[in-house]
Amino acid sequence: MGIPDSTNSDVFHDWAQLPISREQFARESREQMHKLFPNCEPLPGAEKLLSNLSRARSASLGKPIELALASSTRTHSYQLKTSRPETKRLLDFFQPHKRILGDNPRVPKGRVKPAPDIYLLALETLNSAIGPDESPILPSECLVFEDSIIGVEAGRRAGMRVIWVPHPDLAAEYQDRVKLVLAGRTGLIEIGDEWQLGEIDDGWAECIPSLEHFDYGKYGIEVPL
User: Fold this and answer.
1) pLDDT value at position 223?
2) Cα 148 vs. chain centroid, distance in angstroms?
3) Model pTM score
4) Do residues 185 and 195 make contact, with C-beta atoms less than 8 angstroms apart?
5) What's the whole-number mean pLDDT along residues 122-131?
6) Can you tell me the distance from the alpha carbon of 98 to that of 68, in angstroms, rounded to the nearest whole number?
7) Strand 161-164's sheet: what is its strand order?
């Protein structure tokens, strides 16, 4: 669900109305995470996408595309998820200081996704490396790739454009609510600040079935041959 460990357990437990205690569910979830997370594999097209973006430029400005990782995952879970060699290769596209995780001390407590803070901190990190004569990157110039619903909401709240690439099962579950997801208006976790949310069909988010279907030209991105 894209929510940090403890919150994830509570939200899912309430939603599923499980016949076991929260404590038992949390314990069994941790056991399964330790077992399954090391088997995580990159999404189809992820490595090619990052490789292309790392070489790409803005068609209008001619500037390189800057990359950052923004995840609500805590460090321990992140290390488990990225333990496979093919997953570690993806991390090479992100400089270490441009990887913002859920337990980063600069992320205010309780302000992980769907709050926008992680994405705004990632943007701040990118802008900190820009020269004094260059204009800072604006939220409206950022493009977020997300697989989770609350991640889409976080990106929208940050004022960024969003590409939602859901797991097929999640896409099927929300097939009648795609427009709400893209606007960040599912209300999965209520945090207030409704003014940050998008509007239905405002053109600031789209859903694609795979990263392999990403249209670079649509977003003004030029990839050298």
Assistant:
1) 96
2) 7
3) 0.89
4) no
5) 93
6) 5
7) 143-146, 161-164, 205-207
